[in-house]
Design brief:
By secondary structure, the chain is of the alpha/beta class. The protein contains 15 helices and 11 strands. The longest helix is centred in the last third of the chain and has 21 residues, at 318-338. The two termini are 21 Å apart. It binds flavin mononucleotide (FMN).
Length: 341
């Protein structure tokens, strides 16, 4: 018994599971473990690492092809404040053309946090064989993703960890909306998944794959600090809060930093704030993210996690998460089908 979807077939992967990008750093080891286990690993767009982010990004891609021969993907955040994104959009197709291993294995480019149009225009010409997906947090934004010609959508709702949109739509509603309106488009559903039950539901709604973030933070192979991982099993679904992060609203675990940081401000207020921020203030805030990853300071730092923390009670191996969850999801779907007479 093996579930097949358009994504498992077209991407040549065994299981319809992806690691969601989580860009404090590149999540390279997590991506390798995910691809090796038969899912699709995704390299993140780092905020915290690298004096030369372009060369560092290339080094991660090279590292992956040296450690797995399986397909994988990457994320580029096209946000206003992500100043290196335009160079990356241009460079990645060039790197693929120069290296046959990258050309073969780097099959998925996911843009997020800004618009999809520049990437779509560039990659449709320079990397037409690479699947381009964009993260959509609301149907009207998904309309724009489809207009730009992307191959697929990652429908991501508000229950997920890390940066969110101002739209406040749940994954449950959004994924149904996208599946109904754009059945011909490849669809990944993301935000709020951390169990076989969730994966079965996502696939039943019409998604071709499910991407998970928080579930993979709490894995043996992820690069996240052990203190960070250890907070997830005891956390409940009520222990996260939405506040304002670098790109807009962000879901964090409730701690000293998150509570002090306050509520989500509007998009306009956020833009005004960006204009007023001094470099010192900007770096000071970034420091709260950095100390979690570098020192494991989970009291004073910012800890992005999703509501799924309430479902995760153990730190598992990536391989176990992917194979066990898919097999169990298949059983659940079969069970439902067997009751249809
Ligand atoms: C620590 C962390 C960092 C994240 N960084 C990014 C990022 O760089 N780019 C992005 O598109 N999404 C980012 N996200 C969002 C995830 O890709 C994904 O949407 C989210 O984790 C899904 O929810 P889940 O945690 O319930 O699985 C981040 C999430 C977390 C928890």
């Amino acid at each position: 018994m093996t579930i097949k979807t358009r994504i498992t077939e077209e991407f040549g992967i065994q299981y319809p599971i992806m690691s969601a990008p989580m860009g404090p750093f590149y999540t390279t080891e997590l991506a390798i473990a995910t691809s090796e286990a038969g899912g699709l690993g995704v390299i993140s767009h780092a905020t915290l690492m690298g004096k030369n982010s372009i060369e560092d990004f290339k080094a991660q891609l090279n590292y992956v092809v040296e450690h797995t021969d399986k397909p994988f993907g990457f994320n580029v955040r096209t946000a206003r404040v992500q100043t290196d994104h335009k160079i990356l959009l241009r460079k990645i197709p060039e790197w693929r053309d120069e290296d046959p291993r990258l050309k073969e294995q780097l099959i998925y480019g996911l843009t997020s946090a800004g618009g999809p149009r520049k990437a779509a225009a560039m990659w449709q010409k320079k990397a037409p064989d690479m699947y381009h997906f964009h993260v959509g947090p609301a149907l009207w934004l998904v309309d724009k993703i489809v207009e730009s010609g992307c191959d697929g959508i990652v429908s991501t709702g508000i229950e997920g960890g890390g940066h969110q949109s101002y739209e406040n739509i749940s994954t449950l509603v959004l994924t149904q909306q996208v599946a109904m309106k754009y059945p011909e488009k490849l669809l990944v559903t993301c935000g709020g998944y951390a169990s076989p039950e969730g994966i079965a539901a996502g696939l039943a709604m019409g998604a071709d794959a499910v991407a998970m973030g928080t579930r993979f933070i709490a894995s043996k192979e992820s690069e996240f600090h052990q203190n960070y991982k250890d907070l997830i099993p005891p956390a409940t679904a009520r222990d996260t809060v939405l506040t304002t992060g670098g790109f807009g609203p962000i879901r964090l675990l409730k701690n000293k930093y998150a509570i002090k940081h306050g509520e989500v401000i509007s998009k306009q207020e956020k833009i005004n704030q960006e204009h007023q921020f001094t470099m010192e203030e900007y770096l000071e805030d970034l420091h709260h993210y950095e100390i979690v990853y570098t020192e494991g300071d989970v009291e004073n730092g910012a800890i992005p996690v999703g509501q799924t923390a309430g479902m995760i009670d153990e730190i598992k191996h990536v391989d176990d998460i992917i194979t066990h969850f898919t097999k169990e999801a298949e059983k659940k779907l079969k069970n439902v089908c067997s009751r249809i007479t």
